[in-house]
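does this look right to u?? zinc ion version
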Amino acid sequence: MPSLNAPHSAPRSERRVIIAPSLLAADFARLGAEVAAIEAAGADWLHLDVMDGHFVPNISFGPAIIKALRKHCALPFDVHLMIAPADPYLAAFAEAGADHISVHPESSPHLHRTLQTIRALGKKAGVVLNPATPIESIAWALDLIDIIMVMTVNPGFGGQTFIESQLAKIAALRALIDSTGRPIALQVDGGVTLETAPRVLAAGADTLVAGTAIFAAPDYAAAIAGLRRAEAGLLEIPA
Ligand code: DX5
Ligand code: ZN
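got this back:
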């Protein structure tokens, strides 16, 4: 299993981009087979989008599905909670098999306490920034954060168009994370494709979530390998 994130200061050749396929784009009638296939295809984490039809305008799945999938997949389960309130359900997701639990600051009144709770459950704690959510919302909780995820679409649906303005936010977060000296993963979610991935990685991200770009591809392994190589592809572009 790869470490949560390779230090971004390491030479590019020594860094490994983490690929987290989003199950939202999988065939929901064959979820067990899909997660097994995505693990065999070389994914690093499995990204699980939990939606409640209240915090976001869509409903997906909850802890029972995640628990059922746990025995079909050994990858770290990267759970993205798009539910409000999130606090009453944190223990249920931990017990279902989540390894990382990421929350939106807007979903619960006390982000610091929510992160403490996730840590106390023995899980990696993540914070997800919507396109309009400022970096300042997490500035005083960095010591509790293992993953910062930048939404490059508005949350709720797969297959949306990448929001370009977030590249500057990713770059600013890269600088902030480096200033802490802590191994915080910088993850990007939404509209990640072979076209957008190189720019996301160049801005400083180290972890890519991709739903459509992987599950709609005919060959999962090729799609994952292509995204992983996106940074090298960028370097080949003449200046
Ligand atoms: C959206 C979810 C994403 C989604 C990404 O709310 O958080 O993880 O599955 O889908 P794509 O990669 O298709 O934009
Ligand atoms: Zn997500």
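The mean pLDDT is 93. idk if thats expected tbh
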